[in-house]
Amino acid sequence: MNAPDPFFKILGDYGPSCHCDVAGEAFCAGMTPEGLKGLRTIRGNLRIDAQETVFREGEPAANVFSLVSGTVKLSKLLGDGRRQIVGFRFPGDFFGFSPDASYGYTAEAVVPTSLCRFPEVRLMQLRQTNPHLEHRLLDRMVAELHYAQDQMLLLGRMTAREKLCHFLLMLSQRAEMRGAPTQRVALPMSRLDVADYLGLTIETVSRTLTSLKKADIIALGEPGIVDLLDIARLKRIAEGQATD
Amino acid sequence: MNAPDPFFKILGDYGPSCHCDVAGEAFCAGMTPEGLKGLRTIRGNLRIDAQETVFREGEPAANVFSLVSGTVKLSKLLGDGRRQIVGFRFPGDFFGFSPDASYGYTAEAVVPTSLCRFPEVRLMQLRQTNPHLEHRLLDRMVAELHYAQDQMLLLGRMTAREKLCHFLLMLSQRAEMRGAPTQRVALPMSRLDVADYLGLTIETVSRTLTSLKKADIIALGEPGIVDLLDIARLKRIAEGQATD
DNA sequence: CGCAGAATTGAGACTGGTCAAAATTTGTGG
DNA sequence: CCACAAATTTTGACCAGTCTCAATTCTGCG
């Protein structure tokens, strides 16, 4: 399923930080040296190819993951195959926590991806002795929940056009957080992934992108790249303030 | 806006528990006596009428709340008035956490409701000295996120009929958790609230309930009460296994 | 170069939305 | 307890945005 071999040789590169920290945003950022040592002890490294599965919905929730590089999609399935992507994860994000004994979603790599893996049991032990860890985890959880609630508003109340604009702006903001350009965003996932994330079909995603292109709001140059030509207008549409 | 007067006279009634605990499920359940004492010190009590606002989206996030009795709806607004209810809260649940300085949603009572109120700053202080509190909060957050992801699947990929069946079953499960009957569930919220929760209109909610009634899956007796006549069939529809 | 998968485009169908009216329930004052 | 007004819910007719099915074009890769 995946290759659990140690991929990174040098562990100290990131200074007083966990290996998987990115721009000080990962859950392991700002830990004490002892706390980091504990995290390092239980950590495993993982590198997987695009479309490979990290874990599946319903499997025993044995590990929690932190994303070092790449992109991961988290999805849930309905009995007849309908799929909803409940989130994308980018460097610095984590995923795999579950209130039950089994994972609530499937996690798959969108592009070649490297991860830190923490056995759930041992992380739970660590969090007892290291309040800062728990503190960070809680903060990240609150942020995740907030983001999930935004997505509910999108799924329940926005039009296809508004959904796409919102999505492109989200990609731009996440790129900015990682220090990447904000006007030219990478769209590493397929139309099917975008559709399953926004509660649409691939045809509607394609048609809507074409329509945004014709309105000179975006440009679709090389595949997988979108240029945001008019971010102000994108924002207006995403907020439901404009129809054009 | 609301009456911040102390409503409950007796604080010790619940034994070694926080006052707002319900069936051992509240975030304050299972605390040490000292931890409870700390919580009690910063706690305020609140009783509000149906439709009254606890706080509004965008206001400074000064307090966190735990529900003692009643029902609260949490909603987000789009610029033009479109609304999405991102969750209902029942006794034992909490709400009001925000990653930002301001609330991400509006909280309103669905029925007369009593709440415990905790100043956010002081709860943050308490959580540093009381690991168990943080532990509980994190667990509840993980559960909330899990639940939010279920709701994304519902909003993005389910039909109106499936949404309604899922919703009725959710109410039934929550009633069961509180020790209430599971076949006859209270529907304390208006059709508009149900519609805004499920990403539908009031007309579609009404039509779909009528259709479920005609199929002898539910019965609508007294207003605000729904009898689940065929829970097995409800489940099959909610899982996308049946069309009837 | 040729093939397979992905993305786009087109035509028509359908679920759920909109607008409007009727029925029911709720609240209020006598 | 009743009468009446207001609000909510239900029902109906019609419409539109998105989906489905199908064909075509594009892209990547051996």
Question: Layout of SSEs?
Answer:
Two copies of one chain form a homodimer.
Chain A: H1 33-42, E1 44-48, E2 53-55, E3 63-69, E4 72-77, E5 83-89, E6 94-95, E7 106-109, E8 113-119, H2 120-129, H3 131-157, H4 160-177, E9 184-186, H5 191-198, H6 202-214, E10 218-220, E11 225-228, H7 231-238
Antiparallel strand pairs in A: 1-8, 2-7, 3-6, 3-8, 4-5, 4-7, 9-11, 10-11
The first copy, chain A, binds a DNA duplex (30 and 30 nucleotides) through residues 159-160, 190-192, 200-207, 209-210, 223.
What does this protein structure show overall?
Two copies of one chain form a homodimer. By secondary structure, chain A is α+β, with helices and mostly antiparallel strands. Chain A has seven helices and eleven strands. In chain A, strand 4 and strand 5 form a beta hairpin. The termini of chain A are far apart. At the A-B interface, strand 5 and helix 3 of A face strand 5 and helix 3 of B. Chain A binds a DNA duplex (30 and 30 nucleotides) through residues 159-160, 190-192, 200-207, 209-210, 223.
